[in-house]
Amino acid sequence: xxxxxxxxxxxxxxxxxxxxxxxxxxxxxxxxxxxxxxxxxxxxxxxxxxxxxxxxxxxxxxxxxxxxxxxxxxxxxxxxxxxxxxxxxxxxxxxxxxxxxxxxxxxxxxxxxxxxxxxxxxxxxxxxxxxxxxxxxxxxxxxxxxxxxxxxxxxxxxxxxxxxxxxxxxxxxxxxxxxxxxxxxxx
Length: 187
Known about the structure:
The chain is α+β, with helices and mostly antiparallel strands. It has helices at residues 39-45, 52-61, 95-99, 130-135, 144-161, 167-171; strands spanning 20-23, 34-38, 65-71, 76-85, 89-93, 109-115, 120-127.
């Protein structure tokens, strides 16, 4: 369920120390039913918000926990079952419901953060894997480095274009973003 005016969805805060960044592995995309998170990440960032009884049952007796996971981009919530997997990892079962309609690739990074008002784990895609942008049809060909360098040049050009405008430059622009000295189009 998406947020309301009173309790909007908690947006991603890049400054938060509680964000969990996961780089997807081959086993976590496609037809996968699970995504794996380490015990350390969950203890520091998620388990502190869950009832102690549930967390103790999960860690000591491998009793599963149900947890809502909210896709911030599509506004779809899915319920996952968390189970212990070995000594240091936990698997989120139900990940295949998230993967439907997504086009995640190996190496993509997603970020998870806790939404305290909705008592759920929010997530969104944080970074695309650069490798899959150029390698889809030209893998192993001589053209691959050319395409990758072109993509890098394009990314740098976009970065330059988005650099913040200085306050002095803003003061010299009119309300339409044109130089203030060029007012020939005004009556």
